[in-house]
From TrEMBL:
This is DZF domain-containing protein. One of its GO terms (cellular component) is catalytic step 2 spliceosome. It comes from Wuchereria bancrofti. PANTHER family: INTERLEUKIN ENHANCER-BINDING FACTOR, INTERLEUKIN ENHANCER-BINDING FACTOR 2. PROSITE patterns: DZF (PS51703).
Length: 104
């Protein structure tokens, strides 16, 4: 048969058959007669039992305590803002007069 090389390596046939692909050229992958049913938790609730609610007051207290520990005090915040303003002023001074720095 002339069109045996369909789906194989090699040169493509000059004239493909008019009646469709040859009998060995099936699409890869599984063929389903119908789509599988989607997962529904309500249908299989017995397989996935609910867990009881946990008391998370200890966790909430620990998170609140840690938040208070790492939050900067107002004094620290003003010190950081002062440093930021000094750095901004130095950068503006450098950008306004680049002749003062020979390495830049």
């Amino acid at each position: 048969m002339r069109f045996r090389s369909w789906g194989r390596r090699g040169p493509a046939p000059l004239f493909p058959p008019l009646y469709g692909p040859p009998p060995g050229a099936t699409p890869s992958g599984p063929v389903f007669a119908c789509r599988p049913m989607s997962f529904d938790l309500a249908l299989c609730e017995a397989s996935f039992p609910r867990i009881r609610e946990m008391d998370d007051t200890d966790l909430a207290q620990a998170i609140t305590k840690r938040h208070q520990e790492i939050t900067p005090t107002p004094v620290e915040q003003t010190a950081v803002l002062g440093l930021i303003s000094k750095i901004k002023a130095a950068i503006e001074k450098i950008s306004a007069a680049p002749d003062l720095l020979p390495s830049v």
